[in-house]
Design brief:
Blueprint: E1 8-14, H1 32-35, H2 39-51, E2 56-60, H3 74-79, H4 92-98, E3 103-109, H5 115-128, E4 133-138, H6 143-148, H7 156-174, E5 182-185, E6 190-192, E7 200-203, E8 208-211, E9 224-227, H8 232-241, E10 244-247, H9 252-269, E11 276-285, H10 289-302, H11 305-316, H12 338-343, E12 347-348, E13 351-352, H13 355-365, E14 370-373, H14 375-389, E15 393-396, H15 403-418, H16 431-434
Parallel strand pairs: 1-2, 1-15, 2-3, 3-4, 4-9, 9-10, 10-11, 11-14, 11-15
Antiparallel strand pairs: 5-6, 7-8, 12-13
Helix pairs in contact: 2-4, 5-7, 7-8, 11-13, 14-15
Length: 437
């Protein structure tokens, strides 16, 4: 198998009562409420993903409650919509201890952490795990996050100006300790050569930092960098800094259009190659196509519209309670996620989404398309999307935990492997190696 040309998969999760499907915790078969206080359930899930040769597990994070809808957090609280939001970073050591090859990525917001703090935390984990950590870089678009910490929210484009300087500090810290700096000579008692440890002194518009690198370097140098900014300014930031870009588009046509724009942006930048592009999808499996469609219908029927709109309002930075539910969605100005606003202002069939339709789609999987059918049909759909878009791979968000992950690993992965488009073993030991970066 040509390992440089296969589908890359990452499992897309949240450390809350749900992953991305509102009210999934209410299903009798779902174990998420138990997993919130049981590390062994998380470890078992990670081991299942490793058995499926997933490149990694990827935690989104919402460190503040959704409070845009009706200008209140009540519906997010009422339905457990990403609340409570337990910190995903604390899970990574436990997952690293239970696995050998699986990459472990987490979201950490630039809005609420100094560069030194993120480098110290994530690089400690990266060193402990022998190079298996990834960082999903977010500039901080949720109002609830800023309110929780008493911070003012920056304008959209200024967040990315600040983010560029943020990364400048991170790179200095990651590059501080030279390759021959650590001696650890027990006989002489010399641990490191100070002459090979660069002093970091940064004084910029947004940050000041005077120190040396706080952690030893892992085999992959620094964590794999993920980025999901899909606005024009966000895309430029991703092209400059990311190893993998994650995008949400509601349909195959949206994915193809996005890839065309993305490839044009790469060409305009003068780069020979851009970061890998991973699209979000949600898989609904059944023994028959009818069974899978019935399962999807049951999930949709359970989603409370107010809970879905609470999530949508928080993500897009607009109070959708003020709009007519049957009003067609139009692209609106927002200081939250402009890329998501643009992608969700598209069409369903031959017309725009209504507020009601988009709310339910958001409550189902934050706008990601559903691949519905038998394992063979889902494998067909994945392969078709992958070939048609030329994307790097997919971020899969499950519905019911852990069965939707187990069923996918046991039933779909073998089909993809038989077709020669999915690996049967890991190519390396670090996250970066397994992603082929």
């Amino acid at each position: 198998m040509n390992l440089d040309k296969h589908i890359h998969l990452v499992s897309f999760l949240i450390n809350s009562p749900i992953n991305h499907t509102v009210l999934s915790w209410a299903d009798d078969k779902d174990n998420r409420l138990d997993a919130l206080h049981d590390l062994k359930k998380w470890q078992s899930l990670a081991q299942t993903l490793e058995r499926g040769i997933f490149d990694g597990i990827f935690f989104a994070d919402t460190p503040g409650v959704y409070d845009r809808y009706k200008e209140s957090p009540d519906d997010a609280i009422r339905y457990g919509v990403c609340w409570p939001a337990h910190d995903p970073v604390v899970l990574l050591s436990a997952l690293a201890a239970a696995t050998t090859n699986l990459g472990l990525a987490t979201t950490m917001s630039m809005a609420t952490h100094h560069p030194f703090t993120i480098v110290r935390q994530l690089s400690t984990l990266d060193y402990l795990s022998n190079g298996r950590i990834g960082w999903n870089i977010v500039t901080g678009h949720l109002r609830g996050e800023h309110r929780a910490l008493g911070l003012d929210q920056m304008d959209h484009d200024e967040r990315y100006d600040r983010a560029d300087e943020y990364m400048e500090v991170c790179y200095k810290l990651w590059g501080s300790i030279g390759p021959d700096a650590i001696l650890a000579n027990r006989k002489s008692g010399i641990f490191a050569d100070p002459g090979k440890v660069a002093k970091v002194k940064h004084e910029g518009k947004y940050f000041r930092c005077e120190t040396v690198g706080p952690t030893l370097n892992s085999p992959q140098g620094h964590p794999v960098l993920f980025q999901a900014g899909s606005s024009g300014r966000g895309q430029l930031f991703g092209l400059k800094h990311a190893d993998v870009i994650f995008a949400i588009q509601p349909s195959l046509e949206g994915m193809k259009t996005y890839m065309t724009e993305y490839n044009a942006a790469i060409a305009a930048s003068g780069a020979e190659k851009g970061p890998g592009m991973s699209f979000g999808i949600q898989v609904i499996l059944g023994g028959t196509e009818e069974e899978a469609k019935s399962k999807l219908a049951g999930i949709v029927e359970r989603i409370p519209l107010d809970g879905a709109l609470a999530r949508l309002s928080g993500s897009l930075g607009i109070d959708f309670s003020k709009l007519d539910l049957d009003q067609p969605i139009q692209e609106m100005e927002t200081q939250a996620s402009r890329g998501l606003m643009k992608s969700m202002s598209g069409i369903v069939g031959d017309r725009p989404f209504t507020v009601r339709e988009l709310g339910i789609k958001w409550g189902l999987a934050i706008g990601k398309p559903q691949l519905v059918g038998t394992p063979e049909q889902v494998a067909d759909q994945m392969e078709h999307m992958w070939r048609e878009t030329g994307c790097f791979g997919f971020n899969l968000t499950p519905t019911i935990m852990p069965s939707s992950v187990e069923d996918f690993v046991d039933q779909v992965i073998p089909i993809l492997q038989e077709r020669g488009i999915y690996p049967t073993e890991y190519r390396g030991t670090t996250f970066r190696e397994n992603l082929g970066l």
